[in-house]
Each structure stands twice: as structure tokens, then as C-alpha cells.
Amino acid sequence: MSPIHIIPIAYPTTPAAEDLAQTETASMNSNPPCRFCGTPLHHTLVDLGMSPLCESYVSQDRLNEMEPFYPLRVHVCGECFLVQLEAYVTAEHIFGDYAYFSSYSDSWVEHARVYAGRMIERFGLDRRHRVVEVASNDGYLLQHFVARGIPVLGVEPAANVAEVARKLGVPSLVKFFGEQTAREMVADGRGADLLIGNNVLAQVPDLNDFVEGLRIALRPEGIITLEFPHLMKLMAENQFDTIYHEHFCYFSFATTVRILAAHGLTVFDVEELPTHGGSLRIYARHAEDATRPIDERVGALLGRESASGFNRLESYACFGEQVKETKRKLLSFLIEARRAGKTVVGYGAPGKGNTLLNYCGIRTDFLDYTVDRSPHKQGKFLPGTHIPILHPDTIRETRPDYVLILPWNVKDEIMAQVSYIRDWGGQFVIPIPEVRVYP
């Protein structure tokens, strides 16, 4: 389906490197250190103001209580070019009891099923092997290996989510993964032949501890696959809403290769995926394992990133202005719609949606409500904006003019689920990379 209405973004020209925003503190010692290389962080990629934790949904009885907001300022390291946030709260606070359940996205479960089949075929996995997933969530992925009779182990810090996985037959350790947990796994004879980390690398506050854990947990000829949003896509397509406190880091391919190499792991293959607006799936092995040669795709992607300037600070300089322009365009659309007497509601309550709404100052004056398939979110309110989260059937009952799709990365799935809005002339709105209205 082709969009019929586009509000264009006027992207600014790239300023000189010295114009890249720098922190205002004069002392080097007052700057936080890079999570990987320890270099003091002086440069800001984008400042999204103050925002609450994106998964801290508010219950009805807490609406009048004080809600903590934290700076959402993104740094870029001038040495290794790792893009990162400061840790204002601990990972234990964020992920101890989590509201995100992967299985509520049909397309993501299908992505996991296809992945499992491909890995079994490519690497000849069977009952003699063990598949381990870190941040295994509700068993959305490992269940497909269980169905094929392959031993699995999930490592998931959120007890409420891990309990759901266990009911699917996925044994789960309720722990944060790192060097200590990896050593315990190996001591118990539960090292990994295939070690999986899907959309977890960004959520690790102690990056070096996590990657060292991967090295320890991986058997001598084992394979690691990691999936994560690609920084090059994030910046090119203005996906600033994927930035929130639960994501501590954002990765280019080159920086990821460098981080793994520092821990004795070699990236031997890479795939570019459409998930989450554009992700990478990297394949890694022990550096001393010569059985898997490095694929030419590794060098090709490193070359493309280099040509795009991801090893130069000036390439990061214009992103902040792009973000401001997106905010202006989205607010202009919503103001015009409201002045015309149109009703606008949301679909979804993802972390990215909360970043978008809080940064743009969009509350119930613009968005009447949002809906979500997860019963864990229904009846609650979005953090910061306090927009109510209702059952998806509410859209059919209230017949809004516009449905703003907050998890735009699965827009096709959502537009198929809610296609009935066309019965009354309703239209879908996608906010990223620019405002688009679909009939």
C-alpha cells in the first residue's frame, strides 16, 4: 500500500565537526566514561529532554503520585564511537518486573520461528547440542527449539516473564547475564553451542561484563548470534523514538566488531534484517576457532559504514536538528487535525511510543487514548503523558478519524488487524521517519 500524504522533513546540512554539541562541564573528570573504552564522554548526539522510564506504566490509583523523570541525553564516544546513555537507574530497577512480553507480536514470534529453523539447518543442531538465549523473555523463541527436541536454557531477569516461559517448557534462570552467571552455567554443564541474544545488547549497562560472559558461556566451537537495531538505520531514518532509558547503548557494526574482538570473539558473518526499523544479526565465534571463515559480508558492511562517516564525529552532528524537525511536523499535523474537529487515537503502548509522546509533549489534548493487545498494559496509563491504555476493541466502538501507530516497525501487521477503520473512512498515521497518512 502506498502512502497518499507526506509531510516532508527539511534535513539540515552537516555542520562542521567543532559544532557538534559538547557537554557544558569544564572538567574532564566530570564527564561520564564510555561503557566500553572508558574515554570521558564530551559529545552529545541528541538531547530528548526529561522522560520517565518507558515501561513504567501507571495504574489508576497512582495517577496523582509523583512520577520520576530522568534526562534522556545521548552521548557518542569520540574514541570508539559507541553511542550511549548514562545509567540513571539500575538494570535491576528496570527489568526486575517487566511489562514487555514478546509473544504479543505475531510477526515477532514468526520471526523467531523462522530463525530457529534456519539455525537448526545451517549449523546441524540436534539433541546433542544446547541452545541458550540471554534475555529469553516469555519463551517466544526457545519454544521452537523445544518443539524440535533440542535442549534449551533461557536466562531472563524478570521473574514474571520467566514464569510464562516455563509454562511453555522453556527452563529459565531468573538472573541477569554476565561473567558470574556464565561461569555458573559452565560449572553446571550448561555451556552453549548456540548462544542467542536478541535485542538485549542495548539493554546491558555493564557492556564488558556481558560480552565476557558470552565468551565464557560459549563452547569451543559454538556460535553466538546477536540481533540489535543498526545505528546507521536509526540515524538515516530518524528513528529517535527507539532511544529510551532501558536502552543503554546503540551500535554501529564497526563498534560492535571492536567490542567483541576485545573479548576474544570474532564476527564471521552479518545479516541485515528489516526488524525494528532495520537491525543486524551478527554471527560470532571464539577467535581461535578456525572452522568458520569470515564472510565477505563483514568487510562489505564495514566499508559502507566507513564511507558513511561512522568513524568521524562530524557525521553525528546533524541528527539532533532532524529530531527537532520531526517533532515540529508531528505537532503541526495533530494541531491541524484537532482544529478540523478530527479525533485521533493511538495503537500500541511500546517503549518507543513513550519516548515520542513525552518528547513531543503529546497528551490527551491530542490523543484520546491508545490501545494494546497485552492485558498486562490494559487499564493502565502511559508513563509521563497519562494517556489511558484500552482494549483494541475500543477503536471499533469509538470510530476515530485517525489511528496513530506507535510501534511503526510492525505497521503492516497492525494495519491488517485494524483494517476495519476504513469502513468509516478512518486513516492510519505513521510518525517515523516522517508523518505519513495511509488511507
List keywords for this structure.
20% strand, 7-stranded mixed beta sheet, 13 helices, alpha/beta, 439 residues, 29% helix
Task: Outline the structure in words.
With 439 residues, the chain is α/β, with parallel strands linked by helices. The chain contains 13 helices and 18 strands. The chain has helices at residues 91-95, 106-123, 142-146, 159-167, 179-187, 207-217, 231-236, 253-261, 296-307, 319-339, 351-360, 393-398, 411-417; strands at residues 5-6, 43-51, 70-76, 83-85, 131-134, 152-155, 172-173, 192-198, 218-229, 249-250, 265-273, 279-286, 344-347, 370-371, 389-390, 402-405, 427-430, 436-438. The strands form 3 sheets. The protein has a 7-stranded mixed sheet with strand order 1-18-17-16-13-14-15. Helix 5 packs parallel to helix 6 (207-217). The longest helix has 21 residues, at 319-339. The chain is globular. The model is unreliable at 1-29 (pLDDT under 50).
Number of helices in the DSSP assignment: 13
Q: Which outline best applies? A: globular
Tell me about the biggest sheet?
A: 7 strands, mixed
> How many E strands?
18
Our estimate of the beta-strand percent is 15-25%
Low-confidence parts lasting 5 or more residues at pLDDT below 50?
1-29
Oligomer: single chain
Neighbour order of strands in the largest sheet = 1-18-17-16-13-14-15
Rounded to the nearest angstrom, the radius of gyration is 22 Å
Distance between the amino and carboxyl termini: 9 Å
Assign a percent range to the helix content.
25-40%
What is the overall pLDDT average? 90
By secondary-structure content and strand pairing, the structural class works out as alpha/beta
